[in-house]
Amino acid sequence: MTLSRKRLLGGAMLAAVAGIALLGPLHGVDPLRQNLSDALLPPGGAYPLGTDHLGRDMLARLAAGARLSFGLALLAALLAAVAGTLLGLLAALRGGWAERMLLGLADAVQALPALLLVVLVTAFAPGAFLPLYLGITLALWVEFFRISRNAAAGVLARPQVEAARLLGFGTGHILRRHLWPEVAPLVATLFAFAAGTAVTTVAALAFVGVGARPPVPEWGSMMTELLPYYAEAPLALLLPALLIFLTVLGLHLLAGRERA
Amino acid sequence: MRVLGGRAVQAVLVALLVGTACFLMVRLLPGDMAYRIAASRYGYDLVDSAAAEAVRQELGLDRPWLVQLGAWFADLSRFDLGTSLASGEEVADALRIQLGHTLLLSVAALFFSLLLGPPLGVLAGLRSGGWLDGVLLALSAALRAVPAFVLGIGLMLWLAVEWEWLPVAGVGGWREVILPALTLALGLAAASCRVTRDAVAAVAASPFFGFARMKGLGDTAAFRRHGLRNAAIPVVAYLGLQLVVLIEGVVVVESLFAWPGIGHALVHAVLGRDIPMVQGTALVMGLLFVVLNALTDLACWLLDPRRRTA
Amino acid sequence: MSLVVENLRITGPEGLLVHGVSFTLLPGEPLVLLGETGSGKSLLAQAVMGNLPPGLHAGGRVVLDGQDILPLPPRDRRALWGRRIAMLPQEPWAALDPTMRAAAQVEEVDRLVHRRSAHDARQHTAARLARLGLDGAGRRYPFQLSGGMNQRVALAATEAAGAGLLIADEPTKGLDAELRDTAGALLRAEAEAGRLLLVITHDVALARLLGGQAMVMLSGQVVEAGHLPVLLDAPRHGYTRRLVAAEPARWQAWPHRQPGRTVVKGRNLRKSLGGRELLGGLDLEVAEGEVVAVSGRSGCGKTTLGNLLLGLARTDWGSVKRGTWVAPLGMQKLYQDPLAAFAPHQALGQGLADLRQRHGLAADAVRHLLPRLRLNQALLVRRPSEVSGGELQRFGLLRALLLNPAMLFADEATSRLDPLTQQDVMMLLGECVQERNMALLVVTHEAALAEKVASRVISLRTAAA
After folding, report:
1. Phi/psi at A52 (nearest 5 deg)?
2. What InterPro entries does the record tag this protein with (chain A) (predicted)?
3. Which has the closest alpha carbon to A199: A158, A147, A240, A141?
4. What's the ipTM?
5. B286 CB contacts (<8 Å, ≥6 apart)?
6. Range of A101's domain?
7. Are C229 and C369 within one domain?
């Protein structure tokens, strides 16, 4: 598959998930409203995607989950990308003690697997959202830092930068014309993968019960709740899994290339 | 050997990080620490201020926090991890049993993934652009987009519930290992297959591989003598990075399959706010990660003469 | 033993790439194919070897020892490799397996092709390596060997299978003059030992070293053929004449001018890199209107010397003083690899516009200089990788000249260019320097080039080679 078609396909997948997120408010049903007499209904009638074991509307819950994943997980990844890239460029440009300190910090964070770090942070307040997202940002910024710092340091060592300085250009110009064109595509690719990691992490932690908890409509915790009812309502279990898959695959395809 | 020295520093870093986090957790948790620990130990109905005071005395929670931090790390350096707040069991004893389970699962998962990933990757890499390459590429892209727990649920419902080939969960004979190990292995295999393919394709296109053929060596001989080792270097290095996937997967997959390993214990400890247990399990998982990385370094060092002399 | 090529044509998707080439190769008399990059000479070698890139086809006859090998199926062509036809790799340091000891890479040919026992193979290999002056090198890895030693290991491995025909495609690519001479001597010894030898190169000096017959190729056609050195001493075709004249040794010497004010003055310069002393107390002064050349082998510290004078590197000891009249940006540099000296993602015109804006230069400054440097305005919209090496180096000169420098430092600025382009760029550089009465510091590994252009040549020797 060519690169542009890959990206197109990935974009379409993400658009589909985003569409579900937007359908929620239009649909106008409270994702928390229970109606036990309507439990585990197949799609149809008042419930376009059926109901769960407590008779809650699946579409409304999936949409709320999408907003959570898209909104917060992507925000956490974005925050990590901005912070990591800025620090990486700073380290490469400044060098010296600032660079050594940041590299040491990155080593310390990467000494622990990312998920373990997030679990540790969430352990401060299980079920709360803030530590969850802070933990994700804390674990993810390191890769942005490393990739942008290494790429920038590589460019800075090239004759093109020496030539630019000889010609009288300052740091701003070097940043804009020499570093950014090299670093930006790498950061963009990494962002797509990191966002995928963030979405998976939020879902996985919710699934094991450490992250978001019922009744919060999160894809992972929905799967935990619906797992016992796989025989009666396989679709209800499949839908959140499918959305996670589409979101992550869409992001990977959008990245286009392999991560460095 | 400087490499392994770096890993030793990393191990100390892990201990410091986990230790500090857990200490802070104890200090910062909302509400009266002693009261909550007592509650988790005896149940909320049975707790009174006397019980809380006893816990306070026992854990030395009334000392200045710097002294407490010092004592904390002194205990840690002796690998005295205390007793579980939930069960009263020695943390170190519990960890020993759990580590055994986790290692069994990890080794089985690595074994399956090495059986699947690299051989398929070599086949795809030698005929890059062929149909097998295309199929494997799509398959590994799809697999990498499936989180371990979703994959695990799928395998569980399909192989254990529908077909009843394997037990759903738990621990016992070899049959119980297969499902969780397979879940972990598929994710690892998808990554290693892809990396192997790229490494083999790169080696096959390299000038030294071309030269080996020009010297008069056949394709098989050229690949055996010059392809394998050179392709293995990036694969092993990348697998070292991918071990994160294994450690992270262990947390989720053990919980899903009720496999009584470290990851399972960690999740339970976090849920129960059993901080000595959180510290112990996180520490062991972190150190396991460092040890696996050190083994990777060692393998690279053995494979690549440039590292040995540089 | 003989190789007869009759009317060999190579066609690609865009048409005929090599038009009917014929030659006969006999033992003891090497054939040198001369021509510049893209003239189709490498395709010819690949057609004989049987490893043309996909999509290209060869027609005609290639008769090796009485058998036409061109119609043979690929499997049978492969079976000839090493045993009947051998090809010396370009850039041997990349062609040797980085993870295998040198001797093992030669030994395996004896073991796997000749099916010799391990003991026999080891002895054969030891003898072979000793003959090439590589005693003791067999235990080492390629990255522990020098460029010249790697080349000899590659040669030992190439000839191990015992082919009667040896093809060498650009065997001196990336080598300095001294290594080129040893490579030439090695190849000549191969021919004298009775092998058929076909050498492809754009290096006229290598052709002179080898002797035998020569053919000159220009855009897929042989324009001239004959014996060496007659062909090079009395070339008939215009292209051959230009090729010969482009050798630095044949250049007209540049006029020497009266030195003016001092641009920069280095005193007692010392510099060590990685524990090795490159410069041990050197004095150097460069004045307006002067051309000073620094020559020496690669790694002798000549580039470092230039960088010290420009203030791009710091001395360990000694002082660098520039004339008080020299503007802050009054010393500019031309780089060995022009492609690495430009921002790759930016159109050339954009870079020049940035420069104009930064220094408030006149709007038509660039437009005025373009014709002087024989550059087409249409190139401004292209990126650095979309113009030729010669054009890009002239853009490098252009952007330096925009700042009216007092001195230019040309750091092996033409060593990666084809001979004709090299001559072109150097001439242009000389003219510009003279017109503007600038100082020029030339760093080069070619002694002949240094002799012709400079009024003063400083030869740096490596402390311990």
Report:
1. -95, -165
2. BP-dependent_transpt_permease, MetI-like, MetI-like_sf
3. A240
4. 0.81
5. A111, A112, A113, A116, B14, B15, B17, B18
6. 3-29+48-255
7. no
Q: DSSP state, A57?
A: B
Q: What is the dihedral of CA A37, A43, A44, A47, to 10 degrees?
A: 60
User: Domain limits at C275?
Assistant: 250-460
Q: Is B207 on the interface with C (CB under 8 A)?
A: yes
**Can you tell me the distance from the alpha carbon of C318 to that of C328, in angstroms, rounded to the nearest whole number?**
21
* Cα–Cα dist C259/C369, whole Å: 26
- Residues of B within 8 A of A126 (CB-CB) are 270-271, 273
Residue where a domain stops, chosen among C221, C248, C275: C248
Q: How many residues does chain B have?
A: 310
Single out the residue in C218, C248, C278 at which a domain terminates.
C248
Count Cα neighbours of B22 within 13 Å in the Cβ-side half-sphere. Answer: 26
Q: Which residues 6+ apart lie within 8 Å of B231 measured at CB?
A: B122, B125, B196, B199, B200, B202, B203
Helices (H), chain B: 2-28, 33-42, 49-59, 65-77, 91-126, 131-144, 148-155, 174-204, 207-214, 219-222, 228-256, 262-272, 275-303, 305-309
The CA dihedral of C306, C312, C315, C320, to the nearest 10 degrees, is 70
B21 reaches A (C-beta below 8 A):
yes
Task: Compute the distance between CA of residue C325 and CA of residue C437 in angstroms, rounded to an integer.
Answer: 15
C88 closest CA partner among C156, C158, C25 = C158
- Tell me whether residue C465 is in a domain: no
pTM metric for this prediction: 0.82
The torsion region of residue C296 among left (phi > 0), alpha (psi -120 to 50) and beta comes to left
Mean pLDDT of B44-59: 68
Of A158, A162, A167, which is closest to C355 when you measure between CB atoms? A167
> What's the Rg (C-alpha) of chain A?
22
Evaluate whether residue A173 is within a structural domain: yes
Q: Determine whether the interchain pair B306/C141 forms a contact, defined as Cβ–Cβ distance below 8 Å.
A: yes
Is C160 in Cβ contact with B306 (below 8 Å)? no
Which structure tokens are listed for C21? 């080439």
Report yes or no: C50 and C58 within 8 Å, Cβ to Cβ: no
Contacts of B208 in chain C (CB under 8 A): 94-98
Mutate to test the interface with C, among B128, B211, B217, B309 (most CBs of C within 10 A): B211
Which residues of chain C are within 8 Å of residue A164 when distances are taken between CB atoms?
A: 343
Domain of C118, CATH number, reads 3.40.50.300
Print pLDDT tens along chain A (260 aa): 677 888 888 888 888 888 888 877 777 777 777 777 776 677 777 777 777 777 677 777 888 888 877 778 888 899 999 999 999 999 999 888 888 888 888 877 877 777 777 877 777 776 677 888 888 888 889 989 999 999 999 999 899 999 999 999 999 999 999 999 999 988 988 898 888 888 888 888 888 777 777 777 788 788 777 777 777 777 777 888 888 888 888 888 888 766 54
Question: Which of chain A's residues have a Cβ under 8 Å away from the Cβ of B290?
Answer: 111
Q: Which residue of C has its CA nearest to B213?
A: C81
